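User: Hey, quick favor. My workstation is busy. Could you predict this chain's structure for me?
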Amino acid sequence: MIKGGNGFVPTVPLRLAVRSGVDVAVLLLTEQGRVRGDGDIVFHGAPVHPAGAVRLLGEEAGTVWVETGLAAIEEQIVRVLVVGSTEVGSLRDAGELSVEAFAPDGTSVARYDVTDAGGETAMVLAEVYRRAGGWKFRAVGQGYVNGLAGLAKDHGVDVAEGASAPPHQVPVPAPTQWQGVAQAPGVSQAPVPFQVPASAPAPVPFQPPAPAAPAPAFAPAAAPAPVFQAPGAPAPAVAEQRPSGQDWMFGAVFEPHTWTGRDNDVITANGLPPGAVVVDLSIRGDGYTGLWPLTRFNKEGETLVNSTEENFRGRVLVQVPENGRLRLQLKAEGPWQLQVLPLAAATLLTEAELECRGPDVLLHTGGIADFALHYRGDDNLIVNLFELEGHDDPATLPTSDNVVNEIGKRRETVPLPEGPVIVQLEMADGPWKARLKHLEPHSRPSHGGGTPRGAGPVPVADVGKTKGWLRRTRG
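Assistant: No problem, here it is.
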């Protein structure tokens, strides 16, 4: 495809390969050609869009991979820009600069080779945009001699020192919009990890089983389905309140593992990194739900879920054994979906109110703060804290601190130490709201906390994040 050329691409999860070792960012734009806030900037410091449909997967052999789940992109977003930049020299020094889009089966559906790069330090390489009910790929090649600052300003990013952006709430897609391996209804199967198309086809999008009723699969009417952030949270993190440049680094980041089925089953996940992971479970039904890890003797371990909630939805913290093999026994009545997610996918706590129901796993990455929780359920409420500062072994968790153990409707305020801290709502059958209060800046550098590199929630309006993206323009 030559510069300015365009063509339709399938409305499927595309993986974009940006070659030649440049830094890559993605901007999600509205009809006005502008971002709505810092959350619409996806880059190495915030690699997942809050709505979950665009992810920066990382670099391999000089190629940066970007995943775009076109069918999951919010309606307000009409253009997705792929941006390349360099800290040293100009883009003319980047040999064989190109962008190529691959379908889930590894087929190349569009490619643009940049042949006329000059003294620019930043460039809109390509874009994917809505047209006639579908999506098209365009070879853009628009360079900016004034670098990311000029490019950012053209697309509604305020680059002034001290500027602030108003929080912007991004709608959250259902978890079935995430990609795993295609599965027949009722079949449990671990997905194939992502491989670059040159060596193996990328996974096809996850297809949930057809629901018995017209309601959306695995989306209880009483609670909106969360994004892959944590995953259990119906509302996105709205404003991250921590210094920029600190990344959530505790535990490995990996592709989600997804299973679907119906009624009782045993789920086996092989090849997981040892340590804490998040298990996201959704069930459409009104019977009993139970979940247990199985020991090496194939016996039930400590109970993870014990609920009679209709249309259960929740997230639990699970420890993967050293051998990387996690086995879970599920008791359920009705169709279900289960995902194993990296710890970095847990919901980020901020001063913006989070509204959800059921057990959950939350992350606190800022300074000391108070965790305000309003629980409206009738059963047990159990909250534990895992303080990760100084804990360097990702294969284990430190001893938890039980801070709430009550029954029935409650208003609780719990003091939190400086992050990184895992806040585990071990039991919470019923709706709840939570937010941080009296949040203070970090008094020391983060030690393993922050926004995940490969998955999870990112702030939607955080000037510090924009400054991190534009840091090289400040001299």
